[in-house]
Design goal:
The chain has about 200 residues and is mostly helical. The chain has nine helices and no strands. Helix 1 (about 1-25) runs antiparallel to helix 2. The radius of gyration is 28 Å and the shape is elongated.
Length: about 200
């Protein structure tokens, strides 16, 4: 009973935060709602005894991806007004995607003929079972090449984000370290010789 209550409570928070991600106009507020979505998703993973996936979701997505996303949003200096102008133009594609996702979820819930029973809870695992070991064994044996490919893609994304932030912008003041080091005293200081005046 408690597990079902927690499931519905976390699901409600997850749906509300997900709606906040796509409806809030401020990109920083949307990013914070996405952090809440990740945390509640991790709580749902904990309910089905997938502790490793929950911790990875928090550490990787909240601790790394969201921080990178916030840095990109803040440093790219995106013109939000220009982005909002094209929002309604692609709204039909968003609604079509939402309908497809809802149809897939309802199909999984009600597809008992395929051997899927979403009403039954997960079977309890033995005390000595380690989902971390099981995931690691599959990841580094059967899926080692896709895992390395994902790491390379993330590295390319980070380099691309840094490259975009280093572009030249109007009114941007940057330091010229070479010019500062090469400065001489005679270039900055001018000594004037004046005759002494007698004011008696």
């Amino acid at each position: 009973m408690l597990v079902q209550f927690l499931f519905y409570a976390f699901s409600a928070v997850l749906i509300a935060s997900a709606l906040g991600v796509i409806t809030l106009r401020n990109p920083v507020h949307s990013a914070l709602c996405l952090v809440v979505s990740f945390f509640t998703s991790a709580a749902l993973w904990l309910l089905i005894e997938a502790e490793f996936l929950a911790i990875v979701l928090v550490l990787v997505y909240v601790g790394a991806v969201m921080v990178l996303f916030l840095f990109v949003v803040m440093m790219l200096d995106i013109n939000v007004e220009e982005v909002r102008k094209g929002f309604t133009r692609h709204a039909w594609l968003g609604w079509l995607t939402v309908c497809a996702i809802v149809f897939e979820i309802m199909g999984v819930v009600f597809a008992r003929g395929l051997g899927i029973d979403a009403t039954q809870a997960a079977k309890p695992l033995p005390a000595d079972y380690s989902n971390t070991g099981a995931i690691g064994q599959v990841m580094y044996t059967q899926y080692v090449y896709p895992f390395e490919l994902a790491a390379v893609l993330l590295l390319v994304a980070i380099v691309a984000a840094i490259t975009l932030t280093m572009r030249k912008r109007k009114g941007l003041k940057v330091q010229d370290i070479g010019a500062q080091v090469a400065t001489r005293a005679e270039d900055r200081l001018r000594v004037l010789k004046m005759k002494a005046e007698d004011r008696k």
